Amino acid sequence: MQVGPIYFATPRTCHVFGMCAEGTGIQRFYMIDESEMPGKGGDCVTSLVHHYFSHFGA
C-alpha cells in the first residue's frame, strides 16, 4: 500500500485593522494575511486609512 500526499496544518497569523464612523456607528474591518504585511512602519496603516476615506468618505 502506497502512502498518499501528506498535508500539514500550519497556523497562520492575520492582522485586523478597523475604522469606525462615530456619527453612523458603521465599522469597517480590514484583515491582512501575514504574507502581505510589509513589516513595521506606518505605510500599511496610511494605505488602509487612505483606502477607507477614498471608498467610504469622511
Can you walk through the features of this model?
It is a single chain. The chain is of the alpha+beta class and 58 residues long. It has one domain. 24% of the residues lie in helices and 28% in strands. It contains one helix and two strands, in the order E-E-H. A two-stranded antiparallel ribbon has the order 1-2. The longest helix has 14 residues, at 43-56. The mean pLDDT is 84.
- Spatial arrangement of strands, main beta sheet: 1-2
Number of helical segments with 4 or more residues: 1
- Tally of separate domains: 1
**SSE string, helix = H, strand = E?**
EEH
Computed Rg: 18 Å
**What does the overall shape look like?**
elongated
Let me know the largest β-sheet. Answer: 2 strands, antiparallel
Secondary-structure-based class equals alpha+beta
Kindly state the percentage of residues in helix: 10-25%
How many distinct beta strands? 2
Q: Quote the average pLDDT.
A: 84
Strand content: 25-35%
Query: Spans with pLDDT under 50 lasting ≥5 residues?
Result: none
Distance, first to last CA: 63 Å
